[in-house]
Amino acid sequence: MQRCGQCGFELTDAAIKMGYCPNCGSVLRVDGAPQPQSHVTESPYPSPSGSGYGPPPALASGAPVASGEAQPLAPALLPVAPPATEGTPSPGVPEGLNVKMRGAPSSVASDVPAPPAAPASPPSQVIIQRRGGAGAGIAIALLVLVLAAGGVLYAFGSNGVGPLAQFVHGTAKTSVAVNPTTLPTATVAATSLPTATTVPPTATPQPTVPPAPPNFTLFKAADGSYGLNVPANWTQSAVTATGITGTNFRSALTSQDFVQIDQGATSTFDPTKVADYVRNFAASSNGTSIVMTQSATTTTLGSNTWMSASATYLANGAQHKVVGLAITHGDSTYLVFYDALASAFADDPGTTYDTMVKSFTFLA
User: Fold this and answer.
1) What is the DSSP string of 94-163?
2) Is 216-362 CATH 3.40.630.40?
3) Taking the domains of the chain in order of start, what are their residue ranges?
4) Is the separation of the CB atoms in 97 and 15 below 8 Å?
5) What is the distance between the alpha carbons of residues 199 and 145, in angstroms, rounded to a whole number?
6) Is the dihedral of CA 29, 34, 40, 44 positive or negative?
7) For an engineered disulfide with 155, which of 24, 70, 93, 164 has Cβ 3.0 to 4.6 Å away?
8) CB hemisphere CA count around 301 (13 angstroms)
9) What SS3 state is found at 337?
10) How far apart (Å, rounded) are the C-alpha atoms in residues 20 and 97?
């Protein structure tokens, strides 16, 4: 709140709008202090005799007033509202500020017109004027900062090639290009990634013929399809026939003992017909009186399961015995015949025939 500079009375917003102090009657400046008076003229309003109204003696006598010295106005110069009834505010005075002049008699004529109220500056104008002054200062400060920054940028230049920068570095004013300093390039050592080791697939073990016992040797078919152990002193000869390839192994002691292996397509041989193949083998050996002693049956010898059959026959006045085996592997069928004199025939375990057949192994 503002106070009157003359009497110290606390001024309300309404009093500031009216422009005078409701306590002492001093005319207020915009900041609430009484308006200094350089001189006071005589009130144009007549003062009733003995009423006490009119200028003070000093002012009435025309005595000079010190410049800038605030003097209270005479009551006659203050705005006097005409008499009002109870509860009716005086003209020009806000409600609540209808006060009587000190020392004013109740017999003042009601027809004396009130002087016009002094114009008052609204508080908003005071605030605007104060803020306007601060804003102007801030704007000037910002302008100075902008000009200073522009001067610095001009002196040093955007790339360090301004006049001041050239002077500092000793470069010519006409030079506008500065070789940039080459920064060292960071070299990152490449990390060697572990090389993936390719593990080859485990090779499937290839079948092999069992080791040959004493006095036996390894035999492999010409096409590599099979192998077996045969007596080392037996002779070998090729068998050729339509649709058949094979080998004949014959004993060196007697030509009557031999083993023949025939190989043909599956369309040529059928293992279930092994009994027929035994009968045909005996007949092709000039055999008569052929008797089948064993029909087709399954038998396992070594690593293979065969179809087997046997028979006896007469040839050159001697009785022979023949055993036939049949098996299919891949796209081929294999026949094995063992023929010997009945008196010398031996297919017991450990015999020549048993060793040969049990070592028979398919290699492909």
Assistant:
1) -TT---PPTT--TT--TTSPPPPPPP---HHHHHHHHHHHHHHHHHHHHHHHHHHHHHHHHHH-TTS-SH
2) no
3) 1-120, 122-172, 216-362
4) yes
5) 75
6) positive
7) 164
8) 25
9) strand
10) 11
The three-state DSSP-derived secondary structure of 158-212 is CCCCCHHHHHHHCCCCCCCCCCCCCCCCCCCCCCCCCCCCCCCCCCCCCCCCCCC
Structure tokens belonging to residue 86: 């109870």
Write out pLDDT tens, residues 234-293. Answer: 999 998 888 899 999 999 877 778 999 999 998 889 999 999 999 999 999 999 999 999
Return the residue matching tokens 């050159």.
316
Q: Is 20 within 8 Å of 7 (Cβ atoms)?
A: no
For the segment 316-327, what is each residue's pLDDT rounded down to a tens digit? 899 999 999 999
Residue 212, pLDDT > 80, answer yes
Bridge partners of residue 230, in order along the sequence? 217
Q: How far apart are CA 364 and CA 346, in angstroms?
A: 30
251, two tokens: 């004993």
| CA–CA dist 61, 138 (Å, integer) | 51
